[in-house]
Amino acid sequence: MKNLKYYLKKAAKEKWAIGQFNFSNLKTLKAIIQAAIKMKAPVILGTSEGESKSIGLGQAVSLVKSFREETKLPIFLNLDHGKSFSYIKEAIEAGYDAVHFDGSKLPLEENTEITKRIVRYAKKKNVLVEGEVGMIGTDASRLYRERFEIKEENLTNPADANKFIKETNIDSLAVSIGAFHGIEVTGLNPRLRLKRLKEIKNRAGDTFLVLHGGSGTPKEDIKKSIKLGIVKININTELRITYTNTLKKVLKEKPKEIVPYKYMPEVVRAVQKVVEKKIKLFGSASKI
Ligand code: 13P
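Above: inputs. Below: predicted complex with 1,3-dihydroxyacetonephosphate.
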């Protein structure tokens, strides 16, 4: 099977993006896999540190491996927002295909140093590394309640990105261009700063650019960002909302049902549908 780098290169050349869909249990993972099968799309499965601890690093690797063998699909596993060298090392040892180090809260020099160390370690094991410059906001506690403020100084500075790429030798760069983790009360997040994306792309060479916070981002902006060089888009909150709200609805409709495999299929179908829509939007259908 072709590796992740092959698909990222192909996406860059043909101007589409691979979806990274996060999961923290088998049902969400199944929904993502079923969508990938139906759409004939390569996908990246993501687990944050929290999500990976909930499943177990080794178990996440084994589950993805088992689906990959069964479906023969290009399915890859990425550690999302790893916060330390030691945890990222554990993920690599467990068998993750790619890792993301989020040193965005650190001073650029410190972020650069740790990312460099991770790249040196990961390259020996053929694992791809995603770095991050500029801060991609999160406000899960206020999720769906208030407007989220994106600060200008948190956007990725193109000169910093250029320096970081040159010094670290990363494969991919997560950019802060106005998206954030979560969805605003309106259900639609602010527009992306596409001019900033263009400036970053001009100074990023062949490094793959990644858009985090894909949930709630206007469709038109997603399409334009792909045209401007985004090749990977991360989606989590929309899957979580769909999963939880569908489960609540089903349990309310069937208060006496206690058998999980009887009430879960509707939840899986709902999450699968969201993933299918994203695959279509990203242009990654029929790209295997
Ligand atoms: P959303 O939760 O906004 O989709 O962001 C997901 C993400 O970027 C994971 O890294």
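Residues 260-282 form the longest helix (23 residues).
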